[in-house]
Design goal:
InterPro entries: P-loop_NTPase
Organism: Campylobacter ureolyticus
Largest sheet: 5 strands, parallel
Structural class: alpha/beta
Number of strands: 7
EC number: 2.7.7.7
Oligomer: single chain
Shape: elongated
Strand order of the largest sheet: 2-4-6-1-7
Protein name: DNA polymerase III, delta prime subunit
Helix content: 40-55%
Distance between the termini: 55 Å
Keywords: Nucleotidyltransferase, Transferase
Length: 205
Amino acid sequence: MNKIIICRDFELIKSNLINKFGRNNLRIFEKSEILLEDTNAAKDEAYISEKEQKIIVLIGHKFRTEAQNSLLLILENTPKNIEFILISNSKNVFLPTIRSRLIIENHFIKEILPKTGLNLRNLSLNDINNFLNKQIKLEKEGVLDRVGLKNLLHAIVKECFEQGIKFNQNELNHINKLMILINLNTKARAVLTPLLLMISDAKKI
């Protein structure tokens, strides 16, 4: 079934698709902006006969109007064993004529942030060490993934504000850099250690 997926994390969706369908059954076309040449290449791939299911995936922050229009016919009459998945971060990227032909899956589900259990206003080195060891164990077990680490960072920062801890601009910039590191698949220890040490030294009101 052809569909649109709306999401924040393209890498996570790609990983989920690979796990579900297998890498050999996927043909992925990914650009910041999907152009007519990209949809033409995707259509050419779709018309190559396959005995097994083949998933054509187009991923972009933007989809050119002419690129979308070029897909209309093949989305109406998709070849046997072929499925199209269009992925972006907003359904408004897609023309009404495209949206009307496809199922829309919205993955912008509000995440419930975890509770850290930390007293961030009185954070000791022992507290930091115990917390880190717990998260590293969860990471090794595959429980704490990249999305989970992002949520954990958000939860820690949110609890800081709730507990009256203020950050200066340099500290806020550092937190943003840690988020970038998470996107680069940096391990929990390398992200959480500097964050928690910074919090333990932060000026508190």
